[in-house]
Please model this.
Amino acid sequence: MDEDGAPDNPGSVLYTVPVRTGQKDNYNLSIGFSATWSRPLDPKLQQQCKEAAATQIQLQQQLIANKRLDFELARLKNCGQLIKEGISFHPKSPYYRTCADVVVQNVTHIKEHRHYIPGPTSTNAQDLGGPISSSSQP
Model:
């Protein structure tokens, strides 16, 4: 700085100090090999872990089987009711196969209908027939 208090060369490097770092260029090539062997300290714990994993797998398989059974029973029930009512998909529909394997047997459902029974033409009691007897004697 001069007597005026302003820097002579603002922003420029005024001096450098050499510092020994000891860095050198290094080129190295090495090939390594590593192997590890471990033995469990508690084989009982390892066996329990295997059994727990097997149990969990069986539980998940059973849950899937239960859901599949629920689906098939619901499909059977709904398709059976629709078949009894005469409702089905067209045979060329891709959904026709949904109920194609459902069979409804021994259908005793009769559609609601009415019969007309004519009434008596006479109001005279003798024209209607004799008295009904409920005794089993001849």
User: Anything to note?
Assistant: Residues 43-103 form one domain.
